[in-house]
Here is the input.
Amino acid sequence: MIVDVFQDTICPWCRIGKQHLKTALAQWEGQVEVRYHPFFLNPNTPPEGYDFKTYMAAKFGGRERLDSLFEGSRKAGTAAGLVFNFDQIGYAPNTLNSHRLMALTPDAHKDAMLDAIHKAYFQDGLNIGDIEVLAQIAGANGLDETEIAAQLRSDAMLDEVLAETEWAANLGVTGVPLFVFNGALALSGAHPPQTILNAMRQASQTAQV
Here is the structure.
């Protein structure tokens, strides 16, 4: 089973969907390869990012709506065992560098690295658009912090990430999280683990026909 996951690192529902996928995979009998693909919720975000609350208020119709907006993903996160501290987030960052970090991470460590990026942003309120912050995350998760910082200051994996986002657009991906099972069955949104498991079984049965 191959699971392609299209996600952006600042998408709370991508984090929740990833956790639901993890729960589903624990019940799956058989081998699974999970492949993470970059997506930009806002490709026009400047390199320095935006003030988080100002940006979110402008995007969703005013600051008075933010509490109810955050509450939905906060509750869903709690149910999945995740912590969301939206009040600690200062920046809505450009996510290109965080996707480049994922691309620089060996395949065997990508799952843990994405968890670490999510935790840094949603739980610890760190600016994951900042190269030094990303290098520290990488160093804490088994990579060479100095080397990663140097690569992120260069153009390492820039073309690869941009090519993948263009590929996703050509496939018709317009929102995330999006899960594609065996290249045949797509599931959009942070669905419960049982829904993901059912989709995996359906994709597996389709492949056997």
Remarks:
- The radius of gyration is 17 Å.
- The chain has a mean pLDDT of 95.
- The longest strand covers residues 2-7.
